[in-house]
Design goal:
By secondary structure, the protein is mainly α. The chain has a single domain, classed as A middle domain of Talin 1 (Up-down Bundle). It has helices at about 5-10, 10-30, 45-60, 70-90, 95-100, 100-115, 115-130, 135-160, 165-200. The model has no long low-confidence stretch (mean pLDDT about 90).
């Protein structure tokens, strides 16, 4: 099992980092200054860029793996947002497929699943810093993501190949049902993964306060 940052830190490293953080805080207080502002996201972005930005945002905001790390809070926040995004999509599916063209609606599940990396990647990055089981959680997510993508892409392609007329109308309903079932299953698997991670986080020592 791969070791997390948390499990590899020595008492000396923790002591030195604590002293550095306290000194920085005292200096800002005496000078009346704040930590430097982060650069905004670039104009041209995609899910990978957003994920990297959020990872760097977390790393700038807290010391991952250290006793005072706020990593667990950020992890739960990002996983929760990913699950909420899926829940909103599921609750609006009937409306989505009612708006033509249906080919556009049928392409959305794959786009949705891929876009969740914006939230899930930061969460998994934190898990690898805080938990020895982190790589295991990343592998689990990759597997359920791959399975879901394969299914939604296959369903969409099957609909495109259906013949016009009654067969096409039948295929439309079947495809809509297949897609929403796959997204719902993906949602449930993500909830299960979040529960596993939350259980692992609960076994960490209580968070320390720096000041």
């Amino acid at each position: 099992m791969s070791k997390s940052i948390r499990s590899q830190l020595t008492p000396e490293e923790i002591h030195d980092r604590r002293e550095q953080r306290v000194a920085e805080a005292v200096a800002h207080k005496l000078l009346g200054t704040n930590a430097p502002m982060r650069s905004p996201l670039p104009i041209k972005i995609n899910s990978a860029i957003i994920a990297e930005y959020r990872i760097s945002e977390v790393e700038d905001s807290t010391d991952l793996g250290y006793p005072w790390s706020k990593g667990p809070w950020y992890l739960n926040h990002h996983m929760g947002e990913a699950i909420r995004t899926l829940s909103v999509f599921l609750s609006n599916w009937e409306f989505i497929v009612s708006v033509p063209p249906v080919n556009h609606a049928f392409a959305l599940p794959a786009k949705l699943i891929r876009s969740l990396r914006e939230r899930v990647d930061p969460a998994l990055h934190i898990a690898q810093a805080e938990l020895d089981e982190g790589p295991q959680f990343s592998a689990t997510y990759k597997a359920i993501e791959s399975e879901a993508l394969d299914k939604v892409l296959a369903a969409g392609n099957a609909y495109k190949q259906a013949l016009p007329g009654k067969a096409k109308r039948t295929a439309k309903q079947q495809t809509a049902d297949q897609l929403i079932d796959t997204v719902r299953n993906f949602h449930d698997q993500l909830v299960s993964l979040q529960c596993e991670i939350t259980d692992a986080l609960s076994k960490l020592p209580p968070q320390e306060q720096l000041f």
